[in-house]
Specification:
Elements (H helix, E strand, L loop, with lengths): L1 H6 L4 E3 L5 H4 L9 E3 L5 H13 L1 H18 L2 H17 L1
Parallel strand pairs: 1-2
Length: 92
């Protein structure tokens, strides 16, 4: 769902589980969304309100998301990464 939303240019609100913060470049130069504390309704509410009030930020995060998914998660890019993993596995 994260990649599909990014491809649609949506700013993402999520929790910092698994690889999601890395996928969204949280803490990086081109963040694609906002991470909120897990199981905390108040932080989720604040993040939603923030994006509703700050449409410029919402647009920026969504645009970053669309650009990131196109450059980092295209079929060609993923295929290259899979081949690298496969070649490392074979040579071991």
């Amino acid at each position: 769902v994260i990649l599909e939303s990014m491809a649609c240019g949506c700013p993402i609100i999520t929790t910092p589980v698994g690889a999601i913060p890395e996928m969204l470049d949280i803490g990086g130069k081109k963040e694609c969304g906002i991470c909120v504390e897990t199981q905390t309704v108040a932080s989720l509410k604040m993040a939603i309100e923030k994006l509703l009030k700050d449409t410029e930020l919402a647009y920026k995060l969504g645009n970053n998301a669309k650009n990131r998914v196109t450059s980092e998660y295209s079929m060609e890019k993923v295929w290259q990464q899979m081949c690298m993993i496969w070649n490392k596995t074979i040579s071991v």
